[in-house]
């Protein structure tokens, strides 16, 4: 049997984590601002449903990567508050993963939006 109060409590904790991510993490705020701009551009350019699915997936992946990166960095800071070369390497790898995903998301955006912009300026 499913313990619905426990499930609801888990969703509440997850929601708090999302709120904290965007409230306290500067990079997440940047990603949020860019996502709003991208969604606005998608509305203006009338993306089709498949393009929306791809764009929204990219936005979600970048946000999730940023959340994982933040969690890893906070855990590293808790475990080793001082400077440690291994902790630095872990943090660099974690933030590098976000950067890789962000670069891919930008490339996907260029492919999708580029086609629309070409059609807009060169019908």
TrEMBL record:
The keyword Ribonucleoprotein does not apply. Substrate binds at residues 66, 95. This is DeoR faimly transcriptional regulator. GO terms for cellular component: plasma membrane. GO terms for molecular function: ATP binding; kinase activity; metal ion binding. It is a multi-pass membrane protein. The chain crosses the membrane at residues 30-47, 93-122. Mn(2+), Zn(2+), Cd(2+) and Co(2+) support activity to lesser extents. The keyword Nucleotide-binding applies. ATP binds at residues 25, 73, 91-92. A divalent metal cation binds at residues 25, 73. Keywords: ATP-binding, Cell membrane, Kinase, Lipid biosynthesis, Lipid metabolism, Magnesium, Membrane, Metal-binding, Nucleotide-binding, Phospholipid biosynthesis, Phospholipid metabolism, Transferase, Transmembrane, Transmembrane helix. One of its GO terms (biological process) is phospholipid biosynthetic process. It is found in: Cell membrane. It holds the Pfam family DAGK_prokar. Belongs to the bacterial diacylglycerol kinase family. Its main location: membrane. The active site is at 66 (proton acceptor).
